[in-house]
Each structure stands twice: as structure tokens, then as C-alpha cells.
Amino acid sequence: MADQKIDNLLNLAMDATPQERRKSGNLNVGYDPATRLWDVIIKYSGPESGLAGNGIQVVPLLGGYAVVTLPESEIDKYSHRAQVEFMEKPKRLYFELFQAKGASCIRTVQTGRDGLTGKGILIGIVDSGVDYYHTDFRNADGSSRILRLWDQSIPGKPPQGYVTGTEYTKEEIDEALALGENQGRRLVPSGDYSGHGTSVLGIAAGNGRASDGVNQGVAYESDLIVVKMGIPRENSFPRTTELIQGIDYLVRQSLSLGRPIAINISFGNNYGSHQGDSLLETYISNVANVGRSVICVGSGNNGNDRIHTAGRLQQGQSEIVEMSVGAYETTLNLQLWKAYADEIEIFLETPSGENLPVLSERIGTQRYRAGETELLVYYGKPGPFQVTQEIYVDFLPTGTYLTSGIWKIHLQGRRIREGNYNLWLPGGNVLNPVTGFYRPVAAETLTIPSTASKVITVGAYDSRLNAFADFSGRGGENLPYPKPDLVAPGVDILAPSAGGGYTGVTGTSFATPFVTGAAALMMEWGITRRNDPFLWGEKVKAYLRRGAQPLPGFDRYPNESVGWGRLCIEESIP
Per residue in 244-278, is it b (16+ CB within 10 Å) or e — as a string? Predict the structure, then answer.
């Protein structure tokens, strides 16, 4: 029987053959084939001292969580330790990138003798890094505004308490800047190769010096702390294990410096129940209660994609969910989430019309063969932090490509108490354009971890047209709490570019830092200037909701598209 202290995906990965794992786009995330080591996230109780062991490396995080690196052969035995409550496999993350200040009432609070600038407040990002040479992150004397830069991808000198990467201090960055770019980049070789983190940080806190103040960010006098997520061991995408350590580091830096911090997360993923119950989500909600912080997360760009569908099944009713798989698709995975109280008969029909056997409701791995495709199925049980049930299907090619055409998922309601079901395909534009559900549903398309309860969830709108951006991830009535909280400008935003200058960017990745910067201004007004010394966390969220302004086309607030409305910081400060 599979280990129920281990999440479904990790159980399935342990059961899958090495060939199946290589073909899957999901099962090997977190595993290093060269060393045969796994990175996993655990929830534990009791002392940290009992977590490590021979060949086992542990990074304790705040609140009883940890990232553990251990041999694959030790996972089962490790999960049976009394201290270990639950173990979760890392998930792939992707940019919330879709390839103004006036609209958000920011200029009015920045100007005048008592204008807000973010001074005294920290802005922290966990992202693709930063071009620390960009003028917008430097003071008038040429020194850096960055107090700490932890590059998880450069081996060497990790921060205290962590085991990967190199931490650079402000003094080291200033020395590199003084040497000039050629020599300086040898001293501090951290860069931002995608440019994503540079643009995100510039919107939140760039001082606009590269444009004589024209393209100034929101909290342009805040001090900065940057975490560049490490290049993982497979396919060069970041994972939740890097993200969770980055957040932990930023909160600890805020505590060490004794200063409030606004944290920006412009990454997400599509794997999970979207109910805020994964270890990543519960960790973020717990750590949001530590110190004086605000955590802002983008809702993702899956709103108009064909990667989510949902419905409500009645007792005795049958439904068919149709899904197209395009030619030359090499891998695909499907998640079906439902209430555990509901008993639903499930089987798949192939493009040739062959009905596969009804999936057996037994915990563990099931295998089916359909033409050029092998199906790896895991029928899960609820975990200790959730009441939902997952049925996970990995489509693996027997040769090079999956069987293309229309696949049908048949659902028959045998014993129904609630009836709601959701199906998700992978996000992040990893599928070819033809692949997707025939009847997609935009509700509940927000990405994880914007689903965490204690974060400010930010969608996007087009501030030029004063219109909702239809790519923005939505909330829904079946979520445990209303999401998103509000929307901010996220279409054709001019932002600092890695290498210098500015570039146009679109996506909730770039709406989120408007709110992160706004949160910093509010904490400056409340905490630094002592107008409201307790203005952080959920209180900032409440003030932003109250100050949010309506958008045309919506009669009811909050709603699943724009939450309480568009960002207006002037109306959010009492």
C-alpha cells in the first residue's frame, strides 16, 4: 500500500519505472538522476535535530517546515519518522508572463512635501534575479540599493542556515559596481538572463534614474533584497523547493534587520487542488504571520487558456469531458479533483473509440495501454491537510508522440453528496496550441500559490482601456475564500530591462509589483510615520480592498475576475 504520509505525485514517482519518469514532464521534478537525490518539502513537529541523518541534508524553515535532500532509497523510511507529518514533492513553477501609475492613484500619494516613497520599508522578490547594474537600482552616488542578493544558482557561500547558492552583501555589490561592469561581474557574477526579475523589481521599486525619473517605480526609495531562484537540475525551470526557501530567507532578513517587508511572488503553477491546502500554500499562510510582512502573489495568466474545466455532477448522472491532444505532443498530465465524499465512476475513451477499463478506486499506481500511449494513473486519498481527492493521469508515449485526437473522460455519479469536480492540464505554455479542453471554464484558473489564504492575490487589467485583461486568472465560488483581492495594471507596462533601458511587458507578473510597491507605501505611512503602527499583513489587504475602485462591466463586488476592484492606493490610505 502506498505511504499516505507522502503526497500522490511522489508516491506515483516511486512506483513508476525510470523510463516512465523520464518520459513524464512531471514525475522527475525534484529528482537529480546523477546523484539519485530528491528534494522534498516536509511538515514536521518536534526538534530540528532529529531530521538530519547519514546522506540526508535538511534546511529548516519557519513554522515547522523544511526542505530535505535525501536518497531515493531513504524516502519511505524517512516518511515513517515520528517527527515527519507529511512529505510533498516539488512542483514546477513558471513565469506569470503573457508575451500605471496614474490609474492606480499612485502619483497622488508620491507627490508633495509628505509624499510616500517606501523609505524604511524593504521590498523583497523571489524571481529570476536582477541586473544589479541597472541604474534604477542604484543611488545617486552610484552605490546599490540592494542590501542582500542570494543567488541560489551560484555554488559557494550560502546564507547562514541554507545550503545552496551564494549570498552577496551590499558591500560586495558596491565593490563590484565601483570596478566597472567587466571586472565587477567577475566579483558578483549574478545576472538575470530572462529579464523577468529586473522588470518585476523595477515596477515595484525602481527609482527611474535611467529615465530621469520618468519611469519611476512605486516604492522608489525602498531598500531591496533579492533572491534568484536556483537553476534546478532538470530543464532549467525553478521549483517550489527554491521558492519556499527564498520566502523563508526574505522573512528572516526582515526580522534580522527589524524592518517591515513587502514580498513579491510573480511565479505560479497549476498542480494542486487550488484550495490552499498544499504544504507550499500552508507554509506561506503561516509565515505571513511572522514579523511585519505583506506577501503579494500574481493570479497567473490561465484565464483564457483551455487548460481547466469543471462541472457539477448529480446522482445517477453521466457527463463526458472532451479533450483534444494535438499532433506531436510528447507528454501530458491530467488532474481530476473532487470531493472525497462523492463516489464517481471514471473511465477514458481513446480517439479511436476504445473504452478503457473503469479506474479502480484503490490507492496506488494503475497502468493502461491505448495505441501509442501508456496511461499511468494514481487514484489518491485525501491528505492530512485536505478533504479533496485527486485522480492523476500521466499520458506517456510508447514511442515519440502521444495518440492525437479527441480523448473523452466519462464521469458517472454513483453516490453524490457535493458533485463539484475540476480538471486541470499543465500551464506555462508547455502544451501545443491544439491541446486543451473543448469546453474550458475560466473560473478557478488562478495559479498556486496565489490560492494561499494569507496572501494578497493580484489579477491584471488594461489601464489604457480601463478593461479587465481576459488572460488574468480567476477565482470562483468553490474556493474556500474570495480571490483575487484586486487587479492592477498588467498590459503593456514599461519596465526596466536587463542590460539597461526599458521594455514593454504584459502579464499578472507585472501587475503584482504595483500592489507590492503600494503595500510598501502603506506600511511607510502606517509604521515608519507612525500613523498606524500595526499596518501590515491582513490589515493591508483589508485597506486595499476598501480602496479598490470599480471597473466597467462588473455590477457585483467582490467577483471572481477583479475581486474588490482595481488598485487605488490614494483611496486605500485612511
Answer: bbbbbbbbbbbeeeebbbbbbbbbbbbbbbbbbbb
Question: Which residues contact residue 26 at a Cβ distance below 8 angstroms, ignoring those fewer than 6 apart?
Answer: 9, 92, 271, 333, 394, 426
Sheet with 343-349: list strands edge to edge: 343-349, 405-415, 318-325, 436-437
Map 86-153 to HEC letters.
Answer: EEECCCECEECCCCCHHHHCCHHHHCCCCCCCCCCCEEEEEECCCCCCCHHHECCCCCECEEEEEECC
Report how far apart the first and last C-alpha atoms of the chain are (Å, whole number).
57
Q: How far apart are CA 173 and CA 281, in angstroms?
A: 33
pTM: 0.93
Averages of pLDDT over runs of 10 residues in the chain (574 residues) are 76 89 87 88 88 90 93 91 91 66 73 86 96 96 97 94 96 96 93 93 95 91 95 61 96 97 94 90 94 96 94 94 94 93 94 92 86 91 84 93 95 94 88 92 95 97 93 92 96 92 93 97 96 96 97 95 96 92
Q: CB count, 10 Å around CB of 204?
A: 32
d(CA 75, CA 39): 10
Helical axes 240-257 vs 279-287, angle rounded to 10°: 10
d(CA 551, CA 549): 7
